[in-house]
Design goal:
With 103 residues, the chain is mainly α. Helices cover 76% and strands 0% of the residues. The chain is built from five helices and no strands.
Amino acid sequence: MSTVSEWLSQADLQIYTKRFEKANITTLEDCRALDEELIKTKLKIVDEEHVEMIVGLVSQLRRESVMVLDDSSALTESSETDAVNNKVKKREKKKKRKKEKYN
């Protein structure tokens, strides 16, 4: 999912796409910043059920972004660990060659 309209359509709320555009909420990153008050005031959505549904979609977006951050952090940690392991292996090979050279 890449657009606000697609995101809203998950809950069959694409009828609000134009309101999001008028409020300059054009990316999913913009949507992550929404809370109940902004949905009611900035987007002028008054149907409580729809407000709750959008709040739920926002919560889901936030959870997904946390998972992505966690995954990329794990990747970074893994890459750093690999780099350290490679340095250790190179050092061990170098020591072994020196030892063989002098024996």
